[in-house]
Amino acid sequence: MKLTNFWHQQQIHLGICLQDGLIDATSVFDLNMEDCFSDWPLIREKLHTNGDIPLLSYDQIRFAPLTKPGKIIGVGLNYRDHAEETKGEPPKFPLLFGKFNDALAAHNQDIILPSHLHAFDYEAELVIIIGKQGSEIKEEDAADYIFGFSCGNDFSARDSQFVSSQWLIGKTFAGFAPVGPCIATADQLSAGNLNIVCRRNGQTVQSSNTKQLIFTPAQLVSYASYYMQLNAGDMIFSGTPGGVILGYAKDKRQWLKAGELIEVEIEGIGVLSNRLVTANK
What we know:
281 residues; alpha+beta; 5-stranded mixed sheet
């Protein structure tokens, strides 16, 4: 099943995504995304009994952030081709960093570019959505803690990312963690073999498959849980494949600019779209 959040009369409603439109599950069933995390087997059965409920057209709604994450965790160099293009060795352990939760953005939400920086880059990523609280999770049990998956863009400002050995300040500006358009629940989507693509103004700039991940979603969830508590709604950006602007020779890098449209498409989930804009002064 595919679930999303959208705005309705200044409130966030839960939507069930179908091919031809969306069911307002909050209005029909009095449910929200947090209810789905707390008792998904029961909620899933309830949502399947949708009958002949009218659909909302996708062009009629404004998407909202998918969860309220206490933590947004990034993973560096988790595709072999990306590690190679950045002249790095494939890591022996997951390289974790953070993005603050106000970096989260929704599908179709504009990304505001900080005016004092210029080296902006895309990173198409499979995002893991945590479904329940856990610590010190064994790898073989990690699937029980994954609610689902979404498309993400670990948007980055390279000219601040590498000021020090800590990547945080290049990763966590407001809106630099767009995720969407929906959550594909883990009971209906296997993340081990999904095509992942990034398009810049319609042109493909990244193209890979999640089978190229160095560390699988289960391994990432397990590893992270030994160093921090994971909670329902937390997100793990699982890493980006090759093709980022940073991977080009310095004289070939054409950094992103205001007005450009970035799309991340992952098989079985959908297309995340965000346009870049300048800050209003």
